[in-house]
Amino acid sequence: MSHREKWGKGRMKVIGLSEFGGPEVLRSFELPDPRPGAEEVRLRVHAAGVNPVDAMVRSGKLEQMYQGLTPPFVPGMEVAGTVEEVGSDVDPRWGLVPGAHVVGFVDNAGRHGGYSEYLALPARSVALAPSNASAAETAGFLNNALTAHNVLDAFRLPEGAALLVTGAAGSVGGYLVELGAAAGLRVVAVAAQDDADLLRSLGAHVFIPRGPDIAQRVLEELGTPTDAVADAALLHEQIAPAVRDGGQIGILRFWDGDPGRGIKVKHLNVRERRTDRDAIVRLRDQVEDGTLTLRAAMAFDADDAVAAHARLEQGGLRERIVLAFDDEVWQPGPPGTDPLTWKP
To answer: Which molecular-function annotations from GO does this UniProt entry contain (predicted)?
Structure first.
């Protein structure tokens, strides 16, 4: 029985929570189908990415965002799906027509989140999916790639500048390495020793194993401080000494530290780019041309969201966890495939 047959016309299934807690609080809810408004498209969601921020929503770490809102609260900030309906005033040149395979960024709040069978999203948050990626792979890249893109845009480093990336083997860190290398930066990657080969393959010029006294070891290895640190590992004051006077540190979660020496601490939130369609399309294009490498997908059925979040909390994964909402998913097509016409 399909979800549509189970829930009934005009209703849809979401995975959410009515109270904060561990993975076990996630369960199915029934909500009305969304309809697209002006400049929006309605998607049938095939797969939704599962990210650490989703676990923060679930656990209550972001409870303040949900004050005054009525549960269920639905996590999820990235999806792969098929366009089902197009609202008014959507630019026809974007190719967002019924049947198109797309990737979408979800500015989740309250009952609006990626863990949903159907979504109405701003058309500017949606782009045609990479033709060389499956639905599951597509669902797991945009949030992290856009986060990395946002960091590098904020830094505005000149070609040849030294960029230090902590947590470089993680999903955000890996894209920081690839995008930094593509921009002509000298990328210094900090991660576990076992990830050295991976990071060199992604374009890191220098690899330094994580561990105690990391800032001192960076300075010893390079002989000079770096121009900026993209701190995906949240090392904060531990890594600040590796930045030159007047340099920059990009922070992805709250830190109220002040490293001094004229260092600019930039608190960055990917939601700032939620409708930056040019950036989203560029990242899609960089997947297609090989600049960005997609991680393999570890797919869980949406009904197994508890297990998916439990696996996320175990850590140590290089695959991306996604929730699959149906079996009608697409596979990558040959080079040059038109995402509007490709059928596996």
So the answer is: oxidoreductase activity
